[in-house]
Structures are given as structure tokens and as C-alpha cells.
Amino acid sequence: MKVPSELKYTKEHEWVKIEGNRAIIGITYYAQDSLGDIVFVELPSVGDAVEVEEPFGVVESVKTASDLYAPVSGQVVEVNNEPMDSPEVVNQDPYGQGWMIMVEMSDPSQIEKLMSAEEYQALIEA
Amino acid sequence: MKFIPHTDEERRQMLKHLAVENTDQLFKDIPSELRLNRDLAVEGGLSEMELQSHMNSLAGLNTGVDQTICFLGAGAYDHYIPSAVKHILSRSEFYTAYTPYQPEISQGVLQSIFEYQSMICLLTGMDAANASMYDGASALAEAALMACAVTRRDKVLVASTLHPEYREVVKTYLHGPGIEISEIAYQEGLSQLADIDQKLDKKTAAVLVQYPNFFGCIEDLGKIAEQAHAKGALLVVCVDPIALGILKSPGQCGADIVVGEGQSLGIPLSYGGPYLGFMACKDKYLRKMPGRIVGQTVDVEGRRGYVLTLQAREQHIRRDKATSNICSNQALCALAATVYLSLVGRQGFKQVAELCLQKTAYAKELLAALPGYQLPWQTPVFKEFVLKTKEAPEVINRELLKENILGGLDLGGYYPELAGHMLFCVTEKRSRREIELLAARLGAIS
């Protein structure tokens, strides 16, 4: 299971990349692998507010549909259309082309509550 | 034979296991003033024969379309049903209202639903149809919710020419999510286009119209679609499927979501149900459509197969977030519609619609020529029309019933301004003789 060390993680299997005051969010390799073939991704629009630990979107695979939970609060400043147009990109490249939204954080201290790569690795191996 | 499965001994054991003395203790959380504290006011049992005879005598109090000549429509229609429909329907492998829970095993049922969806798409001119819904009214309400989800807006415009009971259902559904409803005024039996323009705004998710509308009049869908789209709203059309045998499809007129009542398609009038709601939409809204869809695919060996898709959202994990409560299905009614449509065929279906149109035109002409009756509007109609009467509709219907004729709907109850107006319906089943009989009786009443 790939768990890039430079990223932060949530227990709901989202990854977060911090760039200044912005957070780029996607789902982990483990998440896409557990979901199976992803057939649909629903994401918020630019300008929408997201709330920490609240759902901001949905991924639907052939076997299930799951909510996406926001790792931090803030406003959506960018949305990646690729997972919506070609959902398989999330399976193929979850940490790259399969990223989902970029959020302008309203409370950057929330980052401290996220998991490190080691902690996340321990979670999925447990 | 015992109908209560637990013996006193079994009950004693269960109570002992729970460490309570008697059953009453299990209900002690309910305050005693809220409990019934007496026996139910029902009589003792009847034998099977007595019960059957009782039920028969109750059933005998009903008046059905088998005993009368029916000119009543208003959402429930006396259309011809080929007898093969009921024979295919009652085959045990089909005989359930549910879509299967281990769907892919039931290829036959899935194929029938796939055929149903394909036919609904053909009729409505839409890209995708779901596997069916409860009835026309709830399908319409779901379409309104869907339009709000698609547009992320929270207001809908509803034509007052839409079935009044459908409007009530829409109101009920939209009350919870707090969606605002505004009604469109009508004139000459049609939605007022100027009123639509005036009420459409950037908050409006959809315009809901019926086609043909409650009065049987044919709304200008193309124009209403333009108006709605100009403001970023969707056009939701509630149709009488039979009319689509000859009318331009809502899809061709620019509709985004099409719903309707499928009772006309091979489902008998039976005291209001079970009926069949159908829903279809353009491809781009597919993911927001409630319910499920049966898709066609191939297996690893390239053989054709059918699969139930889009069910996870509603049935399993995300049920709490589903936009709709459609978790059961009307599969048996959908099958009836499928069998009906396949039996009458493309040409036959068109012929049914043409007969409705022609017979209605004939009835309209005959009735309007009678003294004491007149047409309030000159708008083209399909299978129903409004007639203004001098005598009270209630009196007219009572007189007609004496002659075994089910008269029209008294519109005054739904539209106070239309007191003294009746809605008559003429399907392909009405013969020339029956229509002339109606005219003769009405002539004698006024």
C-alpha cells in the first residue's frame, strides 16, 4: 500500500497536501483499493464551504457509495474535474491526477489533528 | 389451527429469561394514561365462509367500470387491457412487486425492467429511465426534488393546471426540505406564459407542468422549456403516456425530466392502486435520478447480461443521504406496462391515442351542442375536456348513475372558480353508441 510520507491523512482515508494556507485533498491508495472500480465522483463547487469531518462529496464504486469527509474547514478554491469526467483516474493515480479539491483553510491549526504517514500506515495495517 | 404461535408455556419461559413477571411490565415505560387499558373494539372472529360472504357484500357496494359506462378520468383511466397482460403478469417467476435482492441471479426480471426503461425512454424522448416509482404524483414530487439537487436551487413553479392531488403530494414532499412553491395561473385552460415569465427567477429550480394538463388541454411545452432554460431552471413534465402515441414527445420539446402515471398502460383501475410512476431524464442528470436502473452489459465470455445499478446510494450504505425514499419498487406494474406496450405495438399504441382523440372530439361536439352545456375554452384537448353545465354537476352525476353511466368529475371541489364545470374523459373503450347515450341523457337532464 502506497502511503507517501509528505502527506497528512484522516481516519476516513483522505490524504491532504498542505501548500501554504491551502489544502489539496484526495483519497488514499488504500481507499480506492478497498472501494474497487470507482464509477462516479461527486464533488462540491468552487466557492462552497466545507466543514472539518463533515461530508463534502461522494465516491461511488461498483460495490458501494461512500462519503468523502473534509480533513479541514474552509472554502473550496479549486475542483479537479478529472475524477468527475473519468472516475477511473482515482483508481489509477489517487495521489496525482485523482486529487479532488483544494481548500483555502479557515483554521490551519486543524492540520495538527491529522495523521502522519506512519500513523496512517499503522491504521490500515491494524 | 392456532394462529397465535406462542403457547402459555413459551411465553412464561421468555418472561422468565427476561426476568420480568408479566408482559405488562415490558410496556411500563409508556405512561398508563397513554395506554388503551381496555380490549380492542373488534368483534370475535368469523369463519372463512362468513368472512368471504361479508367481503363479497362489501365489494358489491362498489361501482366499477365493468358495471358502468365510464366517462370519468382525472388521472385514472379506463383503457383497454389485452388479456395476455394478466396471464404473463401472474406467472410465478414474475409475481412480485419487488426488484430482486440478489439481482443478477434474476436475469429475466432484470431484462423485463430493462425493456420497460427502454420503452419509457422511447415514449418520453429522454435518455434514461429508472426502474419505476410508486405512482405519478410521487414521481413528480421526486422530480421536483431532483431538479433542486441538480440546480442547487430551492424554489419550484408548479402549474395550477397540474392535477390538484399531484400538487398536494408535491407540497408534502417539498415541505420538509423547505423548498418554496409558487403556482402558475391559467387562462383558457392553459398555463399563462406571462405568469411563468414573471415568477421565474434565479432561485427557480424547475417549472412543473402536465401534458396534456388536468383539463385535457395541451400545454405549449416548447415555449415553457425556453422560458425555464433562459433562467437556468429545468422543465419537468408530467405526462399521460397514452397521449405520447400522437403528441410530440416532451424530450423533443426541451423537457429535462419527464414523469407520469403508468396506470393507463395495462394496469386496471382498482380503487386507486397499485399504480406505476415512471421517471426519465436527460443523460447529464442521470446520477441525480432517484431509484435504480437496470443496465445491459456483457459477461466475461461476451454474453449479454443485465445488472442493477445505482442501487448502493438508496438501498445500502447511504440511505440516510438519499434524496428519495424509493427503496421498494413497482416492478410488477412496470412489467404490466412493458407487456401492454409490447402487445399493442408501435402502431397499435398510436391507434389507441388516435381513438381517444377522435372519440373525445366527437363527445365534445355532441355535448357542447346541447342546451344548458357549453365549452368554457376553445383550447385543443386530448382525452378529457371541461364542460360548463347549467345543472349542478352533482345532480347530473346522480342522474347519470341511474342509467349506469359514470359521469365527469365535478371541478368545483378543486377549483372554486370552476364550480358548475365538469371534466369528462373519453377513452378508446367508449363506443359511438355510449357517447350518444351520454349526450341523450345529459340532454334530458338540462
Automatic annotation (TrEMBL), chain A:
Cofactor binding remark: Binds 1 lipoyl cofactor covalently.
Cofactor: (R)-lipoate
Entry-linked InterPro entries: 2-oxoA_DH_lipoyl-BS (IPR003016), Biotin_lipoyl (IPR000089), GCV_H (IPR002930), GCV_H/Fam206 (IPR033753), GCV_H_sub (IPR017453), Single_hybrid_motif (IPR011053)
Lipoyl-binding domain segment(s): 22-104
SUPFAM superfamilies in the record: Single hybrid motif (SSF51230)
Record-listed N6-lipoyllysine modification sites: 63
Gene Ontology biological process terms in this record: glycine decarboxylation via glycine cleavage system; protein lipoylation
Cross-referenced Gene3D superfamilies: 2.40.50.100
A GO CC annotation given for this chain: cytosol
Keywords: Lipoyl
Keyword Amino-acid biosynthesis: no
Job description of the protein: The glycine cleavage system catalyzes the degradation of glycine. The H protein shuttles the methylamine group of glycine from the P protein to the T protein.
Subunit structure: The glycine cleavage system is composed of four proteins: P, T, L and H.
Cited HAMAP family: GcvH
Family statement drawn from the similarity comment of this UniProt entry: Belongs to the GcvH family.
Protein's recorded name: Glycine cleavage system H protein
Organism: Desulforamulus reducens (strain ATCC BAA-1160 / DSM 100696 / MI-1) (Desulfotomaculum reducens)
Gene assigned in the entry: gcvH
